[in-house]
Write a structure and sequence with these properties.
Length: about 190
């Protein structure tokens, strides 16, 4: 069997992570097998074991790929020109709304998120730390950023649809970083 070049290996890994995320979101961590992931990725189980040592290893990789890959875009949004409101909402879109959209409709979405926090708390802490740093950059102080993130966490409590969460996030961002008023408009 010929060896893969670096791009082919990265493409295969990406395909496996996407297949694994789908399986975890639809079957749950406990009920997802290596066989399920291999079938979904159109690979043999043996080949999957060459890439990942066990199910927990692949789960951690999915979590890292799913969340940590968003960090550069969030940092860029926080430092971008524009209003504080637009920057704060963009960070929330990248770090919260997009991942939520992946999870909320899936049968095992909530379990996936809980398992992510339990299996790799360091990655969850890294994600939260970056979110706090971005919010602090935009809002100007860590205390306001902490309160904002606590309120943002509260918006997820009733497992809202993505549309409802987006509306709530816009309202919350407007409270912490009011959007600029348009000239010529009266209230």
């Amino acid at each position: 069997m010929p060896s893969l070049n670096e791009n082919e290996a990265l493409l295969r890994r990406s395909k496996v992570l996407l297949a694994a995320r789908w399986c975890f979101l639809n079957f749950g961590f406990a009920k997802t097998s290596f066989e399920d992931i291999a079938k979904r990725a159109n690979l043999s189980r043996t080949l999957l074991y060459r890439i990942f040592k066990d199910k927990e290893d692949i789960f951690k990789a999915v979590f890292v790929d799913w969340l940590v890959s968003r960090h550069p875009a969030a940092e860029q949004a926080a430092a971008a020109p524009g209003s504080r409101y637009a920057r704060l909402f963009e960070v929330c879109r990248v770090m919260v709304l997009e991942p939520w959209a992946d999870m909320v409709g899936a049968p095992m979405g909530r379990e996936f998120f809980d398992a992510c926090e339990r299996i790799d708390p360091d990655i969850d802490a890294q994600h939260r730390k970056l979110l706090l740093e971005c919010a602090t950059t935009i809002l100007g102080d860590a205390s306001s950023a902490e309160v904002f993130l606590l309120a943002l966490d509260g918006l997820l409590a009733d497992l809202p649809t993505t549309h409802v969460l987006e509306q709530r996030t816009r309202l919350l961002a407007a409270r912490f970083a009011p959007p600029a008023k348009t000239k010529g408009k009266r209230k």
